Amino acid sequence: MRLDNPKFREAEHFLSVMNKDWSSPAFQHNLSAFLSALMSSVEHNKLVCKDPRFKDWYHNATQTYLKRKELVELREFRRKEVHLKGAPSWQEVTVVFPVDKPVHGMSWSINLGAPATAEETSDLPEEIGPRGEVRKRYVWDVPGNPDVLELCRKGLSTIREMMMEYSRMQFRD
């Protein structure tokens, strides 16, 4: 089901761009646009209607969806990015080597401008073998160093649930 909420669709767009392009400063700009669109998509003034059921639904939805950990964290990140100095972020790259094979003098390239691809993992030198792996994350410098994209995906999924429930209510204006 496609949600008829322009701000939600805008958030989906910016998340898809973020998933493909980690180059700086583009990633930070797209992240800011994503956070703004996502939070704007569920503002009371964007959803309000005269249907007598709306008030109770919105109250319950804010308790059910908007208080989930991922949305609390995303709102706080947005607040810091918009109104304060912001939290530094960086790319974290982990290369996992099998413990049963020695690794000597090998090299390969890792693209820091995008998430890990299947090719990057499959192009690992033969000496590493099939159990080698490349993992990349874009992380925020806050407690727990959360993965930015994972948190954004969870936030978008939570808002999608809320907006689908809103659609199912078929509020009358």
Can you describe this structure in just a few lines?
The protein has 173 residues and is mostly helical. Helix content is 51%, strand content 9%.
Secondary structure layout plus pairing:
Blueprint: H1 6-20, H2 26-41, H3 44-47, H4 54-64, H5 69-83, E1 89-96, H6 118-122, E2 133-140, H7 148-169
Antiparallel strand pairs: 1-2
Helix pairs in contact: 1-2, 1-7, 2-5, 2-7, 5-7
Q: What does this 3D model show about the protein?
A:
With 173 residues, the protein is mainly α. The chain has helices at residues 6-20, 26-41, 44-47, 54-64, 69-83, 118-122, 148-169, and strands spanning 89-96, 133-140. A two-stranded antiparallel ribbon has the order 1-2. Helix 1 runs antiparallel to helix 7 (148-169), helix 2 runs parallel beside helix 7 (148-169) and helix 5 crosses helix 7 (148-169). The radius of gyration is 20 Å and the shape is elongated. The two termini are 22 Å apart.
Helical content class: 40-55%
Number of strands: 2
Instruction: Give the biggest sheet.
Output: 2 strands, antiparallel
Query: What is the count of helical runs?
Result: 7
**CA gyration radius, whole angstroms:** 20 Å
Strands side by side in the biggest sheet: 1-2
| Content-based structural category | mainly alpha
User: Which overall shape is indicated by the principal axes computed on the Cα atoms?
Assistant: elongated
Distance between the termini: 22 Å
Helix/strand order, N-terminal first:
HHHHHEHEH
Residue runs with pLDDT of under 50 for 5 or more positions: none
